[in-house]
Amino acid sequence: METSSGKHSIAAAIEESQKNMADLLFEFHSALDCPVWITGYSEMRKGGIFDSYTEKLKSLYADNKEMYNRLFFYRHFSMNQFTIDLKQQAKSGESVKKVLERIGEGYRRRILEDHH
Description:
- By secondary structure, this protein is mostly helical.
- The protein has one domain.
- The protein has five helices and two strands.
- A two-stranded parallel ribbon has the order 1-2.
- Helix 1 runs parallel beside helix 2 (51-61).
- The longest helix has 23 residues, at 10-32.
- The chain is globular.
- It starts with 9 loop residues before the first helix and ends with a helix.
- The mean pLDDT is 91.
């Protein structure tokens, strides 16, 4: 977006960049047909820094339930948050893979479905 002076605004450039990154992720996910992990989702909330990215992901995955179900969200690895989450949410006898799937699905729903 250009301002009245003909220059691009920083906010518009960041928003466009986020939308492009969402497109690239979706393209990558489509090509490789593999699970995708997004770590560090706190700023993907409505009004957060990555709100545009979140909205674009929602639109891209809306018509592809199979790919949507292979998109997982996790707390960031910094300050050991990922491991803390894994330990706190583990159920007795549950494999690490199952715990991670459950956690990733729950955060995906929180971010993409509860994002208004």
